[in-house]
Amino acid sequence: MLGMPRFLFLACTLFLSFPAFVHAGTPSAAAPLELRIPVVSGGHTDFFIRLLEESLKLIHQPYRIHYVKDVPARRMWAMLGKGDINLFYGLQTKQKDVSEGIVPVRHGLTNGLIGQRVFLVRRTDAAAFARVKSVADLRETRLVAGFGEGWGDAKIWSKAGLPLYEHTAPWTTIYAMVAAGNRHIDYLPRGVIEVMPEARSHPELTVEQHLLVQYRGGLCFLSVRVCRQLSPHHRTRPATGGDDRTQGTPDR
Question: How many C-alpha atoms does 127 have within 13 Å on its Cβ side?
Answer without folding.
Answer: 1
